[in-house]
Design goal:
Elements: H1 2-25, E1 41-46, E2 49-51, E3 57-63, E4 70-73, E5 76-77, E6 79-85, E7 88-92, E8 99-106, E9 112-122, E10 130-135, E11 138-140, E12 146-152, E13 159-162, E14 165-166, E15 168-174, E16 177-181, E17 188-195, E18 201-211, E19 215-220, E20 223-224, E21 231-237, E22 244-247, E23 250-251, E24 253-259, E25 262-266, E26 273-280, E27 286-295, E28 302-307, E29 310-312, E30 318-324, E31 331-334, E32 337-338, E33 340-346, E34 349-353, E35 360-367, E36 373-383, E37 387-392, E38 395-397, E39 403-409, E40 416-419, E41 422-423, E42 425-431, E43 434-438, E44 445-452, E45 458-468, E46 475-480, E47 483-485, E48 491-497, E49 504-507, E50 510-511, E51 513-519, E52 522-526, E53 540-545, E54 551-561, E55 563-566, E56 571-579, E57 585-592, E58 598-605, E59 617-618, E60 625-634, E61 637-646, E62 649-657, E63 668-672, E64 681-684, E65 690-700, E66 706-715, E67 725-728, E68 736-739, E69 745-751, E70 766-772, E71 783-784, E72 793-802, E73 805-813, E74 823-829, E75 840-841, E76 850-857, E77 863-871, E78 876-884, E79 895-896, ...
Parallel strand pairs: 2-9, 11-18, 20-27, 29-36, 38-45, 47-54
Antiparallel strand pairs: 1-3, 3-7, 4-5, 4-8, 6-7, 8-9, 10-12, 12-16, 13-14, 13-17, 15-16, 17-18, 19-21, 21-25, 22-23, 22-26, 24-25, 26-27, 28-30, 30-34, 31-32, 31-35, 33-34, 35-36, 37-39, 39-43, 40-41, 40-44, 42-43, 44-45, 46-48, 48-52, 49-50, 49-53, 51-52, 53-54, 55-82, 56-57, 57-58, 58-59, ...
Length: 937
C-alpha cells in the first residue's frame, strides 16, 4: 500500500507540474523559487570569560539567528539557549577546560558562524554575584511587584529573596540583570539577595522597601464651608506621590504629596456634618480617619468697621467694609438705600460705592445671599459740602513745609487740600470741623485754600493763606550722643536751625523713629538698627528733612557700635545665632568660667537685638565638658546642639524649646559617638523635623588608618531620632547644615583626599556637599564643589538655603606650597544645592588672611557672608561682612563690623529674618586680655 501511494503521489505531482507549465505557457511570468536564508553572523559575546565549571550567563550578538539555533563553546553544547531576536541569543556556558575556546552558533538549516577563541575559561570558582540596584525600589506589603535587579555575576538558575522571603518568577536575563516578583513582606526597608546555583550570594542592604497602607493622624484645619475650596494639610504616614483623597465619598482636588508624612489638598463640596477622610495610594492601599473633617453651616456675617466713615450727600464715595463671614453676592445698604458697585474681596472685606443720602448718620447693613445680615448702627455720616473758615498759621514760606490747621465744617475722612492749585501734604482729618496739613511750595502772595471731600464736594476759603519769602532750609550742627549700639534704640538730640513740625530724620540712610519737634532748633529721635553696610570703623551721616522742602546733613555724625550680648569675666567662645518664625533672635555660646567649668548659654531678643534676656540660661546643666554649640530655629521651635564629653566618650548633646526660647528641655545626649569629636550642626525644616550632621569614625581604610566621615540623624525634637546615616567624607571636617521649609536639606564639609593616605597638612582639602529632598530621610551622592585636588586647600564651609536658592561659602588657600594666604570664596545654587555655580571671591585679595566664614539668608532672598580677617599687620582679627542679591554672582564691598584696634574679634555667625533683617554675632576681646565677650551687630 505504501508503494502504491508513493507511485500515485509521483503521478499526481507530474500532472500538477504539467498543469502549471501549461498555465505559464499561456502568458504568466514564472516566479523563481526562494533562495536559502542567509548564514548567521556572530559579532560578540558578553561576558568573554567564565569559570571552567560553566553556568555563566552569556549574550551573543550578530545577525540571522533562527529560532531553534544551538550554541557550542569549545565544542560542547551550551544550555538554556534562548533566541531573543535575529540579532541576540542568551545561553549558559557548558563546562570546559581552562583557556580560550571557539564560540559557534548553528541555525536549524545547518548554517553557522564562529568567533575563534571568543570565550576564555578561567580556573577557580565564579565570582560571587553583586547587587547594585533594584527598580522599582518599593512596593506594597502584599507583594506582587515585578522588579528588575541589577548587578554582576548572575547565573542561570539564580534564586532571589526579598528580606527572608523567596521571590517568584525569577528570570535571569543576563549576568547583570534579572527580574522577579516580590513576595509578601512587612512594612519597611529590607535587603535584596541573589543566590547563584553555586551557593555564592550577593545582597543590597535596604534594597527594597515594603510600603504599608497609609495612616492619617490629623487634618488641619479640621472644618470648613460646605462649598469646599478650602486648602487643608493631612498629616500621617506612608503617603505616596499620586495619592488620592476622599472627604466622605467626594474626591478632593489639587492633591500635593509633600512627603511621606504630609500632603495638602483642596476640599470638595459636601453636606453639613462630619465626614471621614480617606487617603488611597497608587498601589491601592488606603487608610482613613473617622470624623476627621466637619462641614460647617455658614455663619452670619459680622460688620465691624468701615472706612471712610463720612462722605457727601451726593454719594459716589468708595467705602471699604471690614468684618467676617462675607459671602459672594452679599448686598450693602446705607440707611434705606442700596449701595452700588459691591465687590466681595474676601470673607472679611467688601468694597462698595455709597448711594445718595441726606445729611446725618445712617446704619450700614451687609446681607449675605442666605439672608443672614449684620448692621452697624450710625456707622456712616452724610455731610454737606466742606466749608473751610480759617487757616492757622495763615502765612508761611514759599518753599512750603509749613504745618497748618484748617478749621471749618463738613470735613470728611480722606479729604484733600489745595493751596492755590497745589496739593498739601500730610493731610489728617481730625474731625468734621478741623484738619491738619503741610503747605506745598508756592509763590509770594495770597492763595485760596480749598478742601475737597472724597465724594467730590468742595469748599474754598478765598485768600486763606499768604506765601512769604524766608529761609526754610534746615541746618544740622550737632548730634548727641554721637554713638550707640548697632541694634538701634539710642535717644539722640539733634541741634540746628529751621526745623519744622513733621521733620524726618535718617541715620546712615535708615529712618529714625519717634522723631519729636521740640522747637525750630531742636529735635529728638531714636536711632534705627544699623543699616546694611554701616560699619563701626566710620561714623554715618545724620539728615533732617523738613516736610515741605529742604534738608540738611551732618557728615560723620553718629557711630554704630556692636552691642553686648554677654559681657562677664568668664570667657565666651563659638557663638551662633538664629532667628525664629516670630522674629525672635536666639544666641548660644560656650562659656568657660575662671575655674575651667564649661556650659552652653542661651539668650534671646524679642526686639531685633536691641535688648536681650536679663540672665543667660544654662542649657547643659552638668559638670561635663562641652564645646562648639550651634542653634537652629523655625516657627516656635529652637534647637541647640553641641559636643559633650560623658565618661570619656564624645556625645552629640542637645536641648530644645517649642515656645520660642521661653522655656527649654534639659540638656541631654542625642547620640553617643564614641571617641571621636562629633562637631554637630543642625537645621529645621518646615515640618518641624530636625536634621543633625556630625563627624563619625567611618571604619578602617585600606591604609589602616581610622577615617572620619559625615553622618546625619533626623527626627522631631522631643522624639526619637533615626540611626546615623553616613553621607560622605573620608577624612572630614566639621559639617554645616541648612534646611528650608520644603524638606530640602544641604550639608557641607571639607575633606582630605585619602588616596595613599590622608594629607595631614594645610593643603589638599576640598569642600563637599550632599543633600536630601525629604527632610533627611534619604540622601543623594556627595559632590566635590571645589575640586582642588591635593595642591590647594579649601575648608571650613558654611551653607545657607532658602527654597531653590543656596549659597555655600568657604575659606581657601589659592596658592600651592607652604604659604598660608586664605581668602573667602562663595558659590551659588539655583536648584536647592543640586548643582553649584563657579566660585566668586568674596573677601578680595589673599592678604591678609581671611577665614572662618558664616552665611545666612534674609526674608528678601539676599545672602550675607561674614568672616574674620587679620588686620594691623596680622596682630589681631576683625569681623567683616558682604552681601549678595544675585545668589553669589556678585558681592557688595566688604564692611568692617567690629572696627576696634585694641583686641581680636573672631568666630562670626550670622542669621537672617523677615525682610532685609540680618544680625551678626561674634566673640570679642576688647582689651586684648584673653577674656572674650559675645557681641552683636
Amino acid at each position: 500500500m505504501r508503494t502504491t501511494f508513493a507511485i500515485a503521489a509521483g503521478i499526481l505531482a507530474g500532472v500538477l507540474s504539467l498543469g502549471c507549465r501549461d498555465r505559464r505557457s499561456r502568458g504568466g511570468a514564472e516566479t523563481p523559487p526562494p533562495g536559502p536564508p542567509p548564514a548567521p553572523t556572530l559579532t560578540s559575546i558578553a561576558p568573554v570569560s567564565g569559570p571552567t565549571a560553566g553556568g555563566t550567563s552569556v549574550t551573543l550578538a550578530g545577525t540571522g539567528f533562527q529560532s531553534g539555533a544551538t550554541i557550542a563553546i569549545g565544542g560542547s553544547a551550551a544550555t538554556s539557549v534562548v533566541v531573543v531576536s535575529a540579532t541576540s541569543i542568551t545561553a549558559a556556558t557548558p563546562s570546559g577546560s581552562a583557556g580560550p575556546a571557539n564560540v559557534t552558533v548553528t541555525n536549524p538549516d545547518s548554517q553557522s558562524a564562529t568567533i575563534a577563541n571568543g570565550f576564555t575559561y578561567t580556573s577557580g570558582a565564579a565570582p560571587a554575584p553583586t547587587v547594585t540596584a533594584v527598580s522599582p525600589a518599593s512596593g506594597p506589603v502584599a507583594g506582587g511587584t515585578l522588579i528588575t535587579v541589577s548587578g554582576t555575576g548572575f547565573q542561570t538558575g539564580a534564586a532571589v529573596s526579598i528580606g527572608f522571603n523567596p521571590a517568584t518568577s525569577v528570570t535571569v536575563l543576563s549576568a547583570g540583570t534579572l527580574t522577579c516578583v516580590t513576595p509578601p513582606g512587612s512594612a519597611g526597608a529590607t535587603f535584596v539577595m541573589v543566590v547563584n546555583p553555586d551557593s555564592q550570594a550577593g545582597s543590597l542592604s535596604n534594597g527594597f522597601t515594603y510600603l504599608g497602607p497609609p495612616t492619617i493622624s490629623s487634618v488641619t484645619p479640621a472644618s470648613g464651608p460646605p462649598a469646599g475650596g478650602q486648602t487643608v494639610t493631612i498629616a500621617g504616614a506612608g503617603f505616596q506621590p499620586g495619592a488620592t483623597v476622599l472627604f466622605g465619598g467626594n474626591a478632593a482636588t489639587s492633591v500635593t504629596v509633600a512627603s511621606t508624612t504630609s500632603l495638602a489638598c483642596v476640599t470638595p463640596a459636601g453636606a453639613v456634618g462630619t465626614v471621614a477622610v480617606r487617603v488611597t495610594n497608587p498601589d491601592g492601599q488606603w487608610g482613613s480617619l473617622a470624623a476627621a473633617y466637619s462641614y460647617l453651616a455658614p455663619a452670619p456675617p459680622t460688620l465691624s468697621s468701615l472706612a471712610p466713615t463720612s462722605g457727601p450727600t451726593a454719594g459716589g464715595q468708595s467705602v471699604t467694609l471690614t468684618g467676617s463671614d462675607f459671602l459672594g453676592g452679599a448686598a450693602v445698604t446705607f440707611g434705606p438705600n442700596p449701595a452700588t458697585g459691591v465687590v466681595v474681596l474676601s470673607s472679611t472685606q467688601i468694597t462698595c460705592v455709597t448711594p445718595v443720602g441726606v445729611a446725618g448718620s445712617v446704619n450700614v447693613t451687609v446681607a449675605n445671599p442666605d439672608l443672614q445680615s449684620s448692621t452697624l448702627t450710625s456707622a456712616y455720616t452724610y455731610s454737606a459740602a466742606p466749608a473751610p473758615a480759617a487757616v492757622s498759621p495763615s502765612s508761611g514760606d514759599t518753599a512750603g513745609g509749613t504745618p497748618v490747621t484748617v478749621t471749618g465744617t463738613g470735613f470728611g475722612t480722606g479729604a484733600t487740600v489745595l493751596f492755590g492749585t497745589s496739593l498739601a501734604g500730610s493731610v489728617v482729618v481730625l474731625s468734621p470741623t478741623a484738619l491738619t496739613c503741610v503747605t506745598p511750595s508756592g509763590t509770594t502772595g495770597a492763595v485760596n485754600v480749598t478742601v475737597t471731600n472724597p465724594g467730590g464736594a468742595s469748599g474754598t476759603l478765598t485768600n486763606g493763606f499768604t506765601y512769604t519769602s524766608g529761609g526754610s532750609t534746615p541746618s544740622v550742627t550737632a548730634v548727641s550722643p554721637g554713638s550707640g549700639p548697632s541694634s538701634g534704640g539710642t535717644l539722640v538730640t539733634i541741634t540746628g536751625s529751621n526745623f519744622q513740625t513733621g521733620a524726618a530724620v535718617t541715620v546712615g540712610g535708615a529712618a529714625a523713629t519717634s522723631v519729636t519737634f521740640v522747637n525750630s532748633s531742636t529735635l529728638t529721635a531714636v536711632t534705627p538698627r544699623a543699616p546694611s553696610g554701616s560699619g563701626a570703623t566710620a561714623a554715618v551721616p545724620v539728615t533732617v528733612t523738613n516736610p515741605g522742602a529742604g534738608s540738611a546733613t551732618l557728615a560723620s555724625a553718629f557711630l554704630f557700635l556692636p552691642g553686648a550680648v554677654e559681657s562677664v569675666s568668664d570667657t565666651a567662645s563659638h557663638p551662633d545665632v538664629a532667628v525664629d518664625g516670630s522674629g525672635r533672635v536666639h544666641v548660644v555660646w560656650r562659656r568657660t568660667a575662671s575655674g575651667g567649668a564649661t556650659d552652653i548659654l542661651h539668650v534671646r531678643s524679642t526686639d531685633g537685638g536691641r535688648t536681650w534676656s536679663a540672665t543667660p540660661l544654662g542649657l547643659e546643666g552638668s559638670s561635663n565638658v562641652v564645646s562648639r554649640p550651634r542653634v537652629a530655629a523655625r516657627g516656635n521651635t529652637v534647637l541647640a546642639v553641641w559636643n559633650e564629653t560623658i565618661s570619656g566618650a564624645f556625645h552629640v548633646a542637645h536641648a530644645y524649646s517649642t515656645d520660642g526660647g521661653a522655656t527649654w528641655s534639659s540638656g541631654a545626649s542625642l547620640l553617643n559617638n564614641g571617641g571621636v569629636l562629633p562637631d554637630p550642626d543642625a537645621g529645621l525644616d518646615g515640618n518641624g523635623n530636625a536634621v543633625v550632621a556630625f563627624t563619625v569614625y567611618g571604619g578602617i581604610a585600606p591604609q589602616g588608618g581610622s577615617y572620619v566621615r559625615i553622618a546625619t540623624i533626623h527626627g522631631t525634637p522631643g522624639s526619637a531620632f533615626t540611626s546615623p546615616v553616613q553621607i560622605g567624607g573620608a577624612m572630614a571636617g566639621p559639617p554645616s547644615v541648612a534646611a528650608d521649609g520644603n524638606g530640602i536639606v544641604v550639608v557641607a564639609w571639607d575633606n582630605f583626599p585619602v588616596s595613599g593616605g590622608p594629607v595631614m597638612s594645610n593643603q589638599g582639602r576640598d569642600v563637599w556637599t550632599n543633600r536630601s529632598t525629604d527632610g533627611g530621610g534619604t540622601w543623594g551622592t556627595a559632590q566635590n564643589v571645589t575640586n582642588t585636588g591635593t595642591t590647594l586647600d579649601s575648608n571650613a564651609p558654611a551653607v545657607a538655603l532658602s527654597g531653590s536658592a543656596a549659597v555655600l561659602a568657604w575659606e581657601s588657600n589659592p596658592t600651592s606650597g607652604a604659604s598660608v594666604t586664605y581668602t573667602v570664596y562663595a558659590a551659588g545654587s539655583t536648584d536647592g544645592g543640586a548643582t553649584w555655580n563657579a566660585a566668586a571671591n568674596v573677601s578680595g585679595s589673599t592678604s591678609p588672611i581671611k577665614d572662618n566664614p558664616a552665611v545666612a539668608v534674609d526674608g528678601s532672598g539676599s545672602f550675607t557672608v561674614a568672616w574674620e580677617e587679620f588686620v594691623g599687620g596680622g596682630s589681631f582679627e576683625e569681623v567683616l561682612s558682604s552681601r549678595t542679591t544675585d545668589v553669589a554672582q556678585t558681592f557688595s564691598t566688604p564692611v568692617n563690623l567690629s572696627g576696634t584696634a585694641s583686641g581680636p574679634s573672631i568666630r562670626p555667625a550670622v542669621a537672617g529674618g523677615a525682610g532685609t533683617f540680618t544680625i551678626h554675632v561674634w566673640a570679642e576681646d576688647p582689651t586684648n586680655s584673653g577674656t572674650f565677650d559675645v557681641v552683636s551687630y
